[in-house]
Amino acid sequence: MFVKRSLWAALGSAALFSSTCRATEAASGDSDALTLTPRAAAVSPSAPADGANKPVGTRPLMLDDAATEKPNIHGFASVTFGTAYVTPRGLVVENAGLVVQPVVGIVVPIGDVSFVKNLAVITGIWNSINTAQDDPNVGAWNEMDFFFSLAGGVGPGLTATLTYGGWNFPQSTTNKPDTEHNIDLKIAYADKWFGEDFSVNPYVDLFWAVAGSSTVVQGATGQTGYVELGIVPTFKLKGVGDLPPILVTVPTYFSVGPSEYWGGDSNFGVLSVGLNLSLPLNFIPGRYGSWHFDVGAQYYNFLNGTLLDSGTILSGNTERNFVRGYVGVGMSF
């Protein structure tokens, strides 16, 4: 249920993909960066030749024939430790214990295809683990989601990301949801309205539930959806002392859709505002990827009464105003 946000944050939306791109850019000029290109071994001029016709210091033939192109497949991984599990739709799934949510994936750049620039394939797996869940078969394991995305530029500053998600629920409870199949199309704009140091990053996300159980418990089961409208203001804070700059993001959005999606008589879903601080972990050598530490909080106002009731069914939460805190660590290469 949560992978849509994790994709761009860790597979959210665009944040995860952009962090991967930042790691790639950083690695391109770093002698410590990951590469499969073989390095030439130093050969002493005084060392004897291995063969009669091989002069001292000559590169091995296998290295002469090796491809010099660097690998063009990138990866990412992150894990967050949160006080609760709240989906982007505003459903409070878990509100007790420690919620651990790891995600891992790969990014395969394809290149320009017709009018789409820098097309890339992004795929991976996200999980949610709750220490307060004590399932007789799977223990704390609450959810496992698979995602597959196509992302590329469709205009100046515009990025489109089409994602399929298959959300699975391994717990053995009688009322556990069926696998939920969903697609969403996110159009994001990387603005420069206020210069290079501050951006608003508006976006629209069109979510469609294809089949399976309702993604909000009491809503329609498939063939319905909603729209998410949001911004992700982003800027950097100057580091203190020898610390690198801190990347600050303020993810803000609200959702609206047909009442049958939510299961009640209201069209509004949730209003949410967050604050995330991301600190690069530059002391980790670049050959191990680009690492970062995150800390933040997300506020939710459940505008929809049925949505609030659905969260009560799952987690016992009855508060219309809700805050989730978290810390996390991630890497990309």
Give an overview of the whole structure.
This protein has 333 residues and is mainly beta. 13% of the residues lie in helices and 45% in strands. The protein has one domain (3-28, 56-332): monomeric porin ompg (Porin, Beta Barrel). A hairpin with an 8-residue loop joins β12 and β13. α1 (3-9) packs parallel to α2. The protein starts with a helix and ends with a strand.
Provide tags for this entry.
13% helix, 45% strand, 17 strands, single chain, mainly beta, Porin, 12-stranded antiparallel beta barrel, 5 helices, 333 residues, globular
What's the topology here?
Blueprint: H1 3-9, H2 14-28, H3 61-65, E1 74-82, E2 85-86, E3 92-94, E4 99-113, E5 116-130, E6 141-155, E7 158-168, E8 180-189, E9 198-199, E10 202-211, E11 224-231, E12 234-237, E13 246-249, E14 252-256, H4 259-262, E15 268-280, E16 290-302, H5 305-315, E17 321-332
Antiparallel strand pairs: 1-4, 1-17, 2-3, 4-5, 5-6, 6-7, 7-8, 8-10, 9-12, 10-11, 11-14, 12-13, 13-15, 14-15, 15-16, 16-17
Helix pairs in contact: 1-2
How far is it from the N-terminal to the C-terminal residue, by CA? 26 Å
**Count of domains:** 1
* Uncertain regions spanning at least 5 consecutive residues: 9-59
CATH homolog superfamily: monomeric porin ompg
Helical region count?
Answer: 5
CATH architecture: Beta Barrel
* CATH fold field value: Porin
* Number of E-type strands: 17
Largest sheet: 12 strands, antiparallel, barrel
Major sheet strand order = 1-4-5-6-7-8-10-11-14-15-16-17
| Rounded Rg | 23 Å
Query: Beta fraction of the residues?
Result: over 45%
> How would the global form be characterised?
globular
Please estimate the helix content.
10-25%
The structure class reads: mainly beta
Instruction: Spell the H/E element sequence.
Output: HHHEEEEEEEEEEEEEEHEEHE
Mean pLDDT: 84
- For the record, the CATH class is Mainly Beta
